[in-house]
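Reopening this ticket.

The earlier resolution said the output was attached, but the attachment link was broken on my side. Pasting everything inline this time so it's all in one place.
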Amino acid sequence: MASHTTSRSWTDEDIARLRELSQRGASVARAAAALNRKTAQVAKKARQHGLPLIGTRQMKAAVRSLDPKAAFSSSY
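Inline output:
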């Protein structure tokens, strides 16, 4: 018999933590990891509360725009 798992309710503390992560410029993936929730749930809740989070595409574009030589240079 397969069990059905329901999602946890969002507490005021969860939403406060999401707001804090948003203010710090966190990505959806990082916020989801910090809140131990799925990225879709975090993105939806952020939209409901008008909180900006960096999306996966934006994050990948930012990484691609970095200078590869600067990323691998060391200053030892």
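Reporter confirms the inline version is readable. The CA atoms of residues 24 and 64 lie 21 Å apart. The longest helix spans residues 12-23.
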